[in-house]
Design a protein that fits this description.
single chain; about 325 residues; mainly alpha; elongated
Length: about 325
């Protein structure tokens, strides 16, 4: 068994382990409700590490599970199993990248939720500022009380008049925070982001075809356009044009995948530089690099051998010439 096939089996084993865990969670979610209950999956309002990990493996529908596992196997093979670098073919690289991409997707949702709250507070503050009382009577009342007492009434009125017309937006914000996030789609889109990055910047991976670029980038653009980035988008996605797909988790998972891919490539370069600095002529990780430099070393040895052979023949020719000259001198003296 070659070294590459051995490390590829490690990556393939990690990939199979992830697929088996997804299948087992789906099959036993009803039998182990105390540990695998839907109420224990991730949501923004009370998310934690345990709920994140459960949500990465939790699927309700068999179709959703099958499609996700097929995509997971395809991009997992392209990223890890078929890579020419031992770091990418590592068992723990597969496992940790799965967890990291899923967490990036969830953390992106939390950031988006905070941005929604910021937009709503800004809308409230703008309404309060517009309804602030500037009449001289309000100033007189405030001076008499020694505080801005009229703002309490104007702010309450502004909040009420803003809340009633935009109650659907407030409901959308709370729904976005309280809904359960399940499935490995965020991880898969993270691996898609990693695949796009490695196709452009990693010499240990094959290049994607033009059709693959078109499909993957078009899919990410579709998810970005359907992500509820604004309050109006959030309202439309909940009440008007919602399709039940967490497009924002897909997009943030892809962004996280690009960051994870960049981290692994940078880690590979730094560790290779340190290895070469401390170990002299140690080969850099990656079969392609090792293959090329192995042939360069063979060519160098062949050139040195030919150079020594030419030098030996040249020295022999010089010695024969000197012996012939000395023989000629002796005959001339006789």
């Amino acid at each position: 068994m070659t070294r590459r096939s051995s490390s590829s089996e490690h990556a393939l084993g990690a990939l199979y382990l992830l697929i088996i865990l997804n299948i087992l969670v789906h099959l036993f979610r009803n039998d182990l409700k105390s540990q695998l209950s839907l109420s224990k999956t991730y949501r923004i309002f009370d998310g934690n590490l345990q709920s994140m990990l459960l949500s990465m493996f939790y699927h309700l529908e068999p179709t959703h599970l099958v499609l996700n596992m097929l995509a997971l196997y395809r991009f997992g093979c392209e990223l890890f199993v078929n890579s020419s670098s031992r770091k990418w073919r590592s068992f723990w690289t597969v496992i940790l990248s799965y967890i990291a991409c899923g967490m990036f997707a969830f953390k992106g949702l939390e950031m988006l939720s905070k941005y929604h709250e910021y937009q709503w507070r800004r809308k409230i503050n703008d309404a309060r500022y517009a309804n602030r009382c500037t009449h001289w009577l309000c100033d007189s009342i405030n001076q008499a009380w020694g505080m801005d007492i009229t703002s309490y009434f104007t702010d309450a009125w502004s909040d009420l008049t803003t809340l009633l017309p935009f109650a659907d937006i407030v409901s959308s914000i709370y729904h976005f925070q309280l809904i359960r996030r399940i499935g490995a789609s965020g991880v898969i889109y993270g691996w898609i982001g990693m695949r796009l990055f490695t196709s452009c910047f990693s010499r240990y991976h094959s290049r994607l075809s033009s059709w693959d670029y078109f499909v993957l980038i078009g899919t990410l653009a579709h998810d970005l356009s359907n992500s509820p980035l604004t309050l109006e988008d959030l309202r439309i996605s909940l009440f008007l044009e919602g399709d039940g797909i967490d497009h924002a988790a897909h997009f943030f998972g892809a962004v996280g995948g690009v960051l994870v891919g960049f981290t692994i490539v940078l880690w590979d370069k730094i560790s290779s530089f340190q290895w070469e600095s401390w170990r002299g002529r140690g080969n850099r990780l990656g079969e392609r690099w090792e293959y090329e430099h192995q042939h360069l070393d063979q060519d160098q040895r062949s050139a040195d051998q030919q150079r020594r052979e030419r030098s030996r023949l040249l020295n022999r020719g010089r010695s024969n010439l000197n012996s012939n000259r000395s023989g000629t001198r002796e005959r001339a003296m006789l």
